[in-house]
Specification:
Elements (H helix, E strand, L loop, with lengths): L1 H19 L3 E3 L2 E3 L9 E14 L7 E16 L3 E12 L6 H8 L3 E7 L4 E4 L2 H15 L5 H10 L3 H16 L5 E3 L4 E6 L9 E12 L4 E10 L1 H15 L11 E13 L5 E14 L2 E13 L1
Antiparallel strand pairs: 1-2, 2-8, 3-4, 3-14, 4-5, 5-6, 6-7, 9-10, 10-11, 11-12, 12-13, 13-14
Amino acid sequence: MKSLLFIISIYLTFSAFSQDYPNLVSNQEITTIAYWNLGDKVRYHCVQEQQNFKNGKDKPYITDKKEFDLTLEVMDSSSTSYTIQLKYSNFILPESTNNDFVQSILTEFSILYTTDEFGAFDSIVNKTELKERVQTTIDLNYNDLDSLTISRLKTLFSKENNIENLFIEDIYSIHNLYGIGLTLNEPITYDLDYPTLEDISVLGQGTITVKTINATRNYASIYMTQRPNKVDLKKYIKDLGRVLFPEHLDDLSNFSVSSKMNQFYDMTLSNGWMTKIKSKKTTTVKVKKKMNKQVNSYSYILQ
């Protein structure tokens, strides 16, 4: 009798949790599904830091850091999709950057995009509007470049697919994980097809592991790794170089490149919003005997 009552109590406990925390399947399993409502609005404070290292040295010779806020608002919700508006604000940029210019330009950008019913990114809606703003920004911000390079940049970003892939880095960082089921400490491996300019194919592999499931505190922590194929990545850099700097192809004739990214997510079990995202991407380029390593660190903290 005691055993039966114990089993029933466990069932009732998880039944209660499942009503409040629909992403909680059991104490060992979760889903990553968005349960958002029309009008939901969240704000992330974002910090991005880039460090460059030469020839294996421990001290970076370049460090740049920027901060800004991202506001996401659910503008439409249906049984098959969400429409979300993303806005930038409150930039803090390196001293070398024209802060007033960036504030005035980027805070005017409003990105409208859709996801599927689970919350995974689908597409940007207002690409035509963004394309026009990018063309204006190139004219204003890159007037120190020669006219031929400016023309090539404008041609590159006259294509709607390139506009989408220019703007989806922050969107992907937030919507990367939606629509899957995970078991505690059991990694899943998946194939990657990276979004790129000119739709040049870059494939890769990734892993996702849920590290913590805490129903009491209403969150799960998830760890992700991503690594693009080295051959594809090198080809992408060379092909993009042919588009932008065809007269300097000799500079791209003999090099190797590799990249990897580690990401950590905290997700709310009750509604699926990510509350904390931290990532570190390391890219290493070798040219002859010289090596340059770039480390990009990102954090998105829900306010």
